Give the backbone structure.
Amino acid sequence: MTFTKTGLDGVLLVTPRVYEDNRGKFWETCNDNRMREAGLPTKWVQDNFSISKKNVIRGVHYQLIQPQGKLVRVTHGAALDVAVDLRRSSPNFGKHVAVELSGDNCAMLWIPEGFGHAFLALTDHVGFAYKVTDYYCPAGERTIKWNDTDLAIHWPVRPDESIVSVKDSMGSSLREAEIFA
């Protein structure tokens, strides 16, 4: 595995070594020793999986109570994955990084506590898997609108073609959101 810094301090692109032959592919999605060496957690408390149709946007999600670090990957299809720095004390507050994750490139993104997370399904069916460092806490869950102008995330989908849940469409603006210190 290689760990590559992104434009946001703490957010890492994780690229596994992929073994491929005429039968298919094999790679490690988690290795405690390599994760520890890279400064990532080695204790995961929950694995989550979702399937999304093309043009589904999920997020920007985060938890103020029981904040979660996330190691995210796409098992099949492709997604534009976005991490947003929500730490008010950070010099990168409100900035984001966006990377394409896919079943073909096998890449993963490490998103530490203090960041919001969102993604856009780029293909017809996207399998999205992620490990988290703390349990889901409904009372701590917060959402910032995916199209908040202060975030200035470039989503490669027309707004009238995007598919967004009611909860996500009712998210706060960055200016009004409860965020991390």
Q: What stands out?
A: Residues 85 and 111 are 9 Å apart (CA to CA). The helical segments are 32-37, 166-169.
